[in-house]
Write a structure and sequence with these properties.
With 153 residues, this protein is an alpha/beta fold. Helix content is 42%, strand content 13%.
Length: 153
């Protein structure tokens, strides 16, 4: 049984390291393109492993970003502020000059707060934040709303 599980795990691990099982939300490409045209530097922070690069290329998202920070590269994982500071160093940016957009209150919003970065929670499902969650400065339902928020800063 263990042998069959190992085979299954290897197959699932391999499949999830490709773009095939992943989906890009319809608002993503337009929002990223708009932010790039406005002159914003964009980066990704992910707790995923090195397979992330292949996935990103396969989804056609690689060209929108100036940096990709994965946890193994930063030797830290979200929600630690360390991975956010590592990502900031890729842009030679200070926390007060950055915004982090993410869909996880714990990993993204708490991590951004620990690093001194303004967080924008992407709440596509309009869920209630968990009790005791970090104070959310901004909540959006679509990435198309990011530009409007940045214009207010």
């Amino acid at each position: 049984m263990i042998e069959k599980f190992d085979d299954y795990f290897e197959e699932v691990f391999e499949v999830f390291g490709t773009a095939e099982p992943w989906e890009v939300y319809p608002d993503v490409v337009q929002a990223l393109d708009s932010l790039r045209k406005q002159g914003f530097e964009l980066g990704v922070i992910s707790n995923f492993d090195t397979r992330f690069y292949r996935i990103f290329r396969g989804l056609g998202l690689e060209g929108f970003f100036d940096s990709i920070t994965i946890s193994s590269m930063a030797r830290s994982v979200k929600p630690s502020g360390d991975i956010f500071h590592y990502a900031l160093s890729q842009h030679v940016a200070d926390p007060e000059d950055a915004v982090h957009v993410g869909d996880s209150i714990r990993e993204d919003m708490e991590g951004a707060e620990r690093a001194g970065i303004t967080g924008i929670w992407v709440n596509r499902e309009r869920a209630d934040p968990p009790q005791g969650a970090v104070h959310l400065r901004k909540e959006i339902q679509s990435l198309e709303q990011v530009g409007g928020f940045l214009a207010q800063l």
